[in-house]
Amino acid sequence: MSTLVLDSASRWFGNVVAVNDVSLSIGPGVTGLLGPNGAGKTTLMAMMSGFLAPSAGHVTLDGQPVWRNTEIYRHIGLVPERELSFGYLTGRQFVRANADLHRLPDAAAATERILEVVDMVEPAGRRLDTYSKGMRQRVKIAAALVHDPSVLLLDEPFNGVDPRQRMHLMDLLRRLGDEGRTVLFSSHILEEVERLARHIEVVVSGRHAASGDFGAIRRLMTDRPVQYALQSSDNRRLAAALMAQESVRAVSLRADHLDIQVDDLGSFAVGLPGLAKEHDVTLYELSPSDESLESVFAYLVAR
Amino acid sequence: MINTTIAKLALQALLGRRRFFLLLAFPVLLVALVALVTALTDGDAAFDILPGLGYPLVLPLVAILAASSVLGPEVDDGSIVYLLSKPVSRYGVAISKWLVALGATLTAGALPILVASLIAGDSDRAVGMFVGAIVAGTTYSALFLAISAVTRHAVIASLMFVLIWESLLGNLFTGVAWLSIGQWGLRVGHEISDRLPDPANLPYAVLAALVVTLGGVWFAGDRLRSFSLRGED
């Protein structure tokens, strides 16, 4: 059982602040690190795995600093996003080399055991450069797990992995979390994270935006005002009628459409057609104007 | 300190790339050229190829290729994290990789110089040349390993050192001999055959070669201790 702690950790590159004063604590179980691309997830991962010095603050594993501390890798397994460039090795040779680097007493047995865990025994005799993306990802996980670490860090492990393999990987990570390991993976896809992680940490623009179990994060993300753009035969009349509705927070009249801010998505959607008919207005188009993940994140940060 | 797994992987990286054939081409061409000139001419013409071309050019080029092959690509594409996310001494990693580069430099750089100078026929000078090449090759491989650990442009930086500093400026200003790895090697070789030139003085040459070798390998290890992954974002 291990706990990874970031204490006011920041990292900047010249004038660019990649990670800004992040404090969080990651314990046993599966934790998802969620954020849009460029939010600083990779920088955070690099700091947590000892491959980047924090510019300020501390990163520790069970009280031990992670940076320039090679002994820490007895407890950490790292699955980097980087591709394997050891294409000339077979899967088994690659995992075995990792076992040898850890100086495991019975490296051969450990290799076979972990190949079994990731279900890669059969293709392990083939060269890495013949593997599919999902297979390479599983071999990378096997290499990171071969020394039975208490912490597993995975940077964007599902990127480019086909759906069937993704299910398989998720089952594997869930199992590892249930065994009491501290499993942290990063992703920019909400659905991915909430299917797997009990606990979610959200980072946006280098800041720690939210933290909690997936239900709480999901509620934060859905119970928020939603923007719609609406076109109709008589925008002004419809705007007046809309403003009287409980679910509508704001309406603004644009040149050719209405911008509407809605609090309660359900009753707005149900009530709109009847409202239009009652005031004899024809609806032409209704479209959400900010459904992208980035705007969801922006909302979380603004709170 | 020596990590056999790292050394094995480094050897595979060295043998598994196309650069290996380049590494092989240099000594083969050198020996062939010397053999050809020996057959066609009399006197010192053939032997002169060695101090003129083999020693100052082929040897450092082989050392550059060897040192950059064992470390450069892995640092460039970041895949060295797979080796470094382990509880292994970074100095051990540097030493293991250096030994592989050294072995390649001596095999493909120093040994062909011995073979070629024996073909050119002067066993006394040949052994002196060989000893000089061992000293210089050892020092070169450590220096170029250190350069590979700091910059992505290790091959260019190392080439500039050899071509501009050692060859061009070394020929113009005799003082450069004091800071030229090739000249240190020659000075040691001079102890065996006094027909080799005698730049600098022996204790200095030996000490300088030793300092650069140990310093280079230590520095490479220290850079690996601070190896950082930069995110794409």
Give the overall pLDDT of chain B as a whole number: 89
Read across the widest sheet of chain A, the strand sequence of neighbours is 6-7-8-3-9-10
Q: Could you tell me the number of beta strands of chain A?
A: 14
How far apart, in Å, are the first and last alpha carbons of chain A? 34 Å
Descriptive account of the structure:
The complex is a heterodimer of chains A (303) and B (233). Chain A folds into 2 domains: 4-221, P-loop containing nucleotide triphosphate hydrolases (Rossmann fold, 3-Layer(aba) Sandwich), CATH 3.40.50.300; 224-302, Alpha-Beta Plaits (2-Layer Sandwich), CATH 3.30.70. Chain A has 10 helices and 14 strands. Chain A has helices at 41-48, 91-101, 107-117, 133-145, 163-178, 190-196, 214-222, 235-243, 265-278, 293-302, and strands spanning 4-13, 16-26, 29-34, 56-61, 64-65, 76-79, 151-154, 182-187, 199-204, 207-213, 226-232, 248-253, 258-262, 283-288. Chain B has 233 residues and is mostly helical. In chain B, 79% of the residues lie in helices and 0% in strands. Chain B is built from 9 helices and no strands. In chain B, helix 6 packs antiparallel against helix 8 (181-190). The chains are: A alpha/beta (303), B mainly alpha (233). At the A-B interface, helix 1, strand 6 and helix 2 of A face helix 1, helix 3 and helix 4 of B.
Sequence-ordered SSE layout with sheet pairings:
The complex is a heterodimer of chains A (303) and B (233).
Chain A: E1 4-13, E2 16-26, E3 29-34, H1 41-48, E4 56-61, E5 64-65, E6 76-79, H2 91-101, H3 107-117, H4 133-145, E7 151-154, H5 163-178, E8 182-187, H6 190-196, E9 199-204, E10 207-213, H7 214-222, E11 226-232, H8 235-243, E12 248-253, E13 258-262, H9 265-278, E14 283-288, H10 293-302
Parallel strand pairs in A: 3-8, 3-9, 6-7, 7-8
Antiparallel strand pairs in A: 1-2, 1-4, 4-5, 9-10, 11-13, 11-14, 12-13
Chain B: H1 4-15, H2 19-40, H3 45-77, H4 81-84, H5 90-120, H6 123-150, H7 154-172, H8 181-190, H9 202-225
